[in-house]
Structure prediction request, 804 residues.
Amino acid sequence: MVAIQSVTKKYGNSAKAAVENLSLALVPGEIFGFLGPNGAGKSTTIKMIVGLLSQDTGTITVDGLDTLKEPVLVKQRIGYVPDEPLFYEKMTANEYLQFICEIYRVPNEARQERIVRWAKRFSLHGVLDDQISSFSRGMKQKLGIVTALVHEPRLLILDEPMVGLDPKSAFILKEVMHEFCEGGRSVFFSTHVMEVAERLCTRVGIIKNGSLIACDTFHALQGRSGSGDLSLEQLFLEMTDETE
Amino acid sequence: MKLNNIRMLLRAAGKGDSRWEQFVTISFESKNSKPRKKSRLVIQILIGLSILLAAGSMAFMLGVNYYQMEILGSIVGIDGFSWFMGAVTAALITFMFGMFSGGSVLYHGKDLPLLLVLPLTQRELLISRLILHYKANFILHTILFLPSVAVTVLVHGFSLSVIVAALVQIIVAPFIPLSLSLVILHLFVKGKKHSGKSRESWAIIFMLALLVIMQGLASRWMQSGMDSSNLENFAKSFGVVLQGLQRVLLFPKWQMSMAMGNHTFGNGLYFLLAVSAITTGAIFLVATAYGETVTRLWETSTTVRKNNGKSSRSYTGRYALEWALVRREYAIINEHSAFKMELYGEAVIPLILVVVYAISGVMGEFKVMLEPVFGLDIFPMMVAGALLLTASLSMMSGTSYSREGMLLALSRTMPLEGVSFVRGKMVAHLMLFYSTYIIFSLAALAIFNLGLSHALWMIPLGFFVVGSSACFGLAIDGRNPRLDWKLPQQAVKQNLNGLASMGISFGNIAVLTGLGYLLTERLGLPALPSGLLLVAPSACIWWLSWKLAVSGARKLYQAQ
Prediction:
């Protein structure tokens, strides 16, 4: 689904790479959790996959399509929820979702049904005709998620998706992520909430200082550490040297 | 009140806002590319020279006008009348621009929600915003006024009173129009009905109406007082009019007297005391509920409901994508009253001028002035040229990417080629400026009785010229959009990209005007075939501008 091969990215003239020689692959049907301390390179990696940033070396493919050579086709396959939701705030939620459907060429007959279905799922159907500027942070986050889902992408990429969500919405999002992968589609998400990653992810990747230091299932990581009862949080802290 | 806090607020607001940084930005210096040093230097020098030339010619034109006023004043025994007119012109235009920028600075700055939660007093916040308001308009006021100083020195020579009066005028005089703008904005914005931004729009509409009425009344009063039966009567009646003006407009009168050494100290004192009183009054008025007003505006801006439960219309049809992008363009414009007033206002400039002239009662004089050229073959071209100039007097596309601000990141995640965005933006531009151009052209053909056959070339020519204007603007703004603005004004009015795109559009019209002149005056062709022939080069220029806009968009939307 996603193949990242030997990718390096530096910002401007900085000597230090934000992402260095990163390689990982996402298989269809898996939920991949991307973990790392602040500034480790998670968002940079995500922005390279969604086509906002270009890598200096290496290749990234989505469904076999190179993100730099076929950016439009790649974007068509991706549903992206950024860490900071951005909208045209003077539009109503419905206008915005209709706009997104048009951009992603969602068939006319399916649009309203999908918008209403996803809005209902995330309890936004009552505010579809409200201006986005009137939404709270959490509502905007939910609208961002609905926006990413409404065009039925093959790959869902979420950057810190749980931020701002109430417990019920966070629960629904986890359910949605599971359902999304059932049809052979994949989810790639970054989070700082280790419990969520531990329960939800098929595999997790841990990045530190731009390099991938671990990439496996939670149980395999436990086994590798030699202690079978460590939580993902403890493993993470151990690997990233962030314990006291 | 801590002065250090105010200093910090001003430094934070000014970060990344220097004119020099904008100049470097417009010189196509990209953070990611490494252009050759020499070519960059050449571009910077050329742009610098063209900006200087533009500013210099504006100052020169103002100076010529002020000089004429000085001469007229001296005929009727009033010395230093250029100073008087310079002060009036600078105050009026600063008042107008102050109204545009005041709302953004004081009530709608993007940094205000951040500042409201900081441990700052209302007074610190207000004073920092007032200083920003002053700073934003100080240069404009100075540029408009300085030519009158030059004229005064030229005619009356240097003197201490001129220097003192000039310093007082430059530093203190902007307080008058800016205070007035503050009071009007405050009175409208503090109302409880409607959203803050719509109240601000009403304040600006009120200001424009006020200016039009004042202009109308002034013109009618001047006309009614004039007696042009012979030169002696004309001079006498003109003197009465000028003296009347001085009785009504005390501030510029005091300023003029200061400069002319006529009771410099006394007039200076009157002036300073009156300005202090007005400024203090305005600040007190605004300060009474500044924090409360700002907080309420931010509250109302987040509780607005639209549509009242009616379902939104979906986009369908063959050009649905283009329509979606056009609607998005207008959604961005409608986000800020500063964008709305600037862009929608630009689209109806000819209409505004007609209204102003009609109210002023000078339409008849225009007709008389134009009579000698009515019969000329080139007259339809002159009409088309004037309308194209006003249609190109626009920042719509030259600031289009900049207006998106941080939302450009959202656009870049969309599965669209750069060309789609250019198409959407160009259509949005044409909808506003080409549609009005067509209306004005048809109206002009009918009013001047030129024959509708000229529409055959005016309408396609307009399409290519307005289209080129859009594309050149997109090409310039696409290369280095100004995205990190804090005030909407910075994305439009204070964005050099918009100015540069207007300059290129004017250059385009100048080239076509030259060709038109060649065809009609040198080759002796009638206006109709000449106009039709002009469509071909205009189409070529449009094609070139389109290519530039698309290549700029391709770079902008690709991964960085």
Summary: Chain B touches chain A at residues 31-32, 301-316, 320-321, 323-324, 327-328, 331-332, 334-335, 406-407, 409-410, 412-417, 558-560 (CB under 8 Å). Residues 3-8+36-300 of chain B form one domain.
